[in-house]
């Protein structure tokens, strides 16, 4: 099933407001997303990207599908899911793993607006199965915004591995980095490193 990518989302950047329309998923995957049409996209090998500190994305709920990641100074992350329910009359089934940087931990992990079939659970870390360092979010998103907030060491990276309706969610990642909104990830999982603490 075709999913509409998030459309018309205003960005708040230093009190200035702008909007974007990223078109369809093929356009996002092959060059309109993160500004590099020649980059190979992968659902296997994690690639690193920068996430800007203290930049906000305002999401228009129900108008497009997406995983939105934001970082605030001091090590505070927010991950939100949205869906295109107003356009498709369907539910987005998100399956997301959040992994901290090696040697770091996630703390103060809390779901926001999770209900019904939504779930946020500790998950064995990729390097040591005896440590519950990662988290697994499953969310059935419609016209609401489902979110997770969590902390880690200031400046520490996180890895986000996301699937939408059982399919690799490469074109559905959104975050602000390197002076631009990223629309689609270079890999899944994608490793995001803050630009500053």
In short:
This protein has 197 residues and is mostly beta strands.
Q: Tell me the β content.
A: 35-45%
Note poorly predicted spans. Answer: 8-41
Structural class assignment: mainly beta
N-to-C SSE series? Answer: EEHEEEEHEEEEEEEEEE
- Arithmetic mean pLDDT: 80
Number of strands: 16
* Overall morphology: globular
Radius of gyration over alpha carbons?
Answer: 15 Å
End-to-end separation in angstroms reads 40 Å
Q: So how many helices?
A: 2
The helical percent reads under 10%
Reported for the largest beta sheet, the result is: 7 strands, mixed
Question: How is the secondary structure organized here?
Answer:
Elements: E1 11-13, E2 16-18, H1 25-32, E3 47-51, E4 56-57, E5 66-72, E6 76-82, H2 85-88, E7 92-100, E8 107-112, E9 119-123, E10 134-141, E11 146-151, E12 158-164, E13 167-168, E14 173-177, E15 180-183, E16 190-194
Parallel strand pairs: 3-16, 5-14
Antiparallel strand pairs: 1-2, 1-4, 5-6, 6-11, 7-10, 7-12, 8-11, 9-10, 12-13, 12-16, 14-15
């Amino acid at each position: 099933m075709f999913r509409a990518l998030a459309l018309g989302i205003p960005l708040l950047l230093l009190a200035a407001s702008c909007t974007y329309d990223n078109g369809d998923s093929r356009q996002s995957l092959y060059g309109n997303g993160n500004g590099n049409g020649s980059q190979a996209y992968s659902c296997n090998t994690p690639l690193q990207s920068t996430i800007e500190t203290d930049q906000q994305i305002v999401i228009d709920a129900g108008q497009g599908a997406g995983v939105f990641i934001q970082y605030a100074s001091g090590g505070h992350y927010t991950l939100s899911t949205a869906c295109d329910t107003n356009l498709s009359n369907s539910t987005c089934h998100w399956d997301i793993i959040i992994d901290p940087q090696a040697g770091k931990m996630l703390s103060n992990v809390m779901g926001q607006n999770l209900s019904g079939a939504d779930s946020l659970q500790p998950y064995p870390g990729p390097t040591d199965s005896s440590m519950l360092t990662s988290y697994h979010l499953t969310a059935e998103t419609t016209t609401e915004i489902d979110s997770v907030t969590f902390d880690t060491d200031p400046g520490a990276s996180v890895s986000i591995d996301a699937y939408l309706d059982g399919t690799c969610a490469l074109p559905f990642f959104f975050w602000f980095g390197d002076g631009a909104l990223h629309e689609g990830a270079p890999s899944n999982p994608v490793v995001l490193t803050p630009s500053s603490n």
